[in-house]
Structures are given as C-alpha cells and as structure tokens.
Amino acid sequence: MNISIVTVGKLKEKYLKQGIAEYTKRLGPFAKVEVIEVSDEKAPENLSETEMIQVKKAEGDRILGKISPDAHVIALAIDGKMKTSEQLAHDLDQLATYGKSKVAFVIGGSLGLSENVLKRANDTLSFSKMTFPHQLMRLILVEQIYRAFKINRGEPYHK
C-alpha cells in the first residue's frame, strides 16, 4: 500500500520529526509512507470570513495538486467520523482488499480544509472533538496507521 500524508506547513520541531521518522521506519515492511508538505498561506491574525475562505482555498488548491487522481482520500477534520483504532485498521484492510493501494490522508492548516478538499475526500476522520496542532497530528496519524497494520496482522503492539 502507498500512503501519503498531505499536510499544510513545515514541521520544525525536532522531537516530532524523530517520532514520525520512527513510525515511518516501522511501517516500511507494510507500506510506503510519504509525507508531502505544502506551504501555508500567509495571513494576518484577524481574518474576515471572506479572507478565511480565500486562505483555505489557496491551501486547498496546493493540497489537491499533490493528490493522485486514483487515491482514496481521507480528510482529517474535527467534524469527521470518529473511529476506533480497530475500525481504522478494518477500513485500511478493506481498501487494500478491494484494490485501493493509494491512500492519501489530508491534514489542513490552522483554519482547516477548503470545501474543494472536503468534496474530493472519500471519507473524513476525526481523532477528537478537541483541536490539536496540525504538526502533532502528523505524529498521531502515522502512529495510528502503524497500529492499524499491527492490528490487521494480529501482532501484539496493539493492546
């Protein structure tokens, strides 16, 4: 399986980079994982509704430009579907079983995802009703993908 994580913004924190690198390495036997960063849109602190839409659209266009046309897209969103680790594992297993070998997870910027990205998504996923920094979500996501593969293989990592 080829998994891409398309995300807005650069990751600067060394500890997060190390954690993501560790889980990406662990995923090596199961899937090819690629993190694709697109630049965030520079914007002032206080935005009007129109300006927020423009920022999300600009970031969304960059995101869509990095997604393969044949990819199954899962957008991370606060109001997405909440799933257990086992449910995510089942979903990834079903995608592989039915020939969807390209999966793209999308993490938006600080304002969220544009309507165009949400329309392109085949599914949405929420890890919590809480808001997390999108840089931290990368680490949480890659760990959950690793956990999903371990669950599907019946291996003891998941308890």
Question: Can you lay out the helices and strands and say which pair or pack?
Answer:
Layout (H helix, E strand, L loop, with lengths): L1 E7 L5 H14 L4 E7 L10 H16 L7 E11 L2 H13 L4 E6 L7 H6 L2 E4 L7 H19 L7
Parallel strand pairs: 1-2, 1-4, 3-4, 3-5
Helix pairs in contact: 1-5, 3-5
Note the main attributes of this structure.
single chain; 159 residues; alpha/beta; Alpha/beta knot; five-stranded parallel sheet; 5 helices; 5 strands; Alpha/beta_knot_MTases; transferase; rRNA (pseudouridine-N3-)-methyltransferase activity; Ribosomal RNA large subunit methyltransferase H
Q: Can you give a write-up of this model?
A:
The chain is of the alpha/beta class. It contains five helices and five strands; from the N terminus they run βαβαβαβαβα. It has a single domain (about 1-150), classed as 3-Layer(aba) Sandwich (Alpha/beta knot). It has a five-stranded parallel β-sheet with strand order 2-1-4-3-5. The two termini are about 25 Å apart. The model has no long low-confidence stretch (mean pLDDT about 95).
